[in-house]
Amino acid sequence: MIQDTEEEFANTILNLYEDKNQLEKMSKSSIDFVKENFSMDAAWNVIKEDFE
C-alpha cells in the first residue's frame, strides 16, 4: 500500500493491523499474484512455445 508520507504509511499499516479481514484479503491477493506471475507454471507459460 503506497502512501505519500511516512506518517500516512504508518497509519495505513496500523489500520491494516487492526483490520484482520482486510489483512487476510491482502495476504491472499499477494499470494495469488505471486503464483500467477512467478510460479513454475507462470514461467512455463512464457517459454513453452520455444519447446513445442
Sheet/helix structural class: mainly alpha
Taking all Cα atoms into account, the compactness measure Rg is: 17 Å
The pLDDT mean sits at 94
Strand portion, in percent?
under 5%
Low-confidence stretches: none
Largest sheet: none
Shape: elongated
* Helix count from the secondary structure assignment: 3
How many β-strand runs? 0
End-to-end distance: 40 Å
Helix content: over 70%
Q: Give the H and E element order.
A: HHH
Structure, briefly:
The chain is built from three helices and no strands.
Which descriptors would you attach to this protein?
77% helix; 52 residues; mainly alpha; 0% strand
What does this 3D model show about the protein?
The protein has 52 residues and is mainly alpha-helical. Helix content is 77%, strand content 0%. The protein has three helices and no strands. It has helices at 6-18, 20-38, 40-47. 0% of the residues are buried. The model has no long low-confidence stretch (mean pLDDT 94).
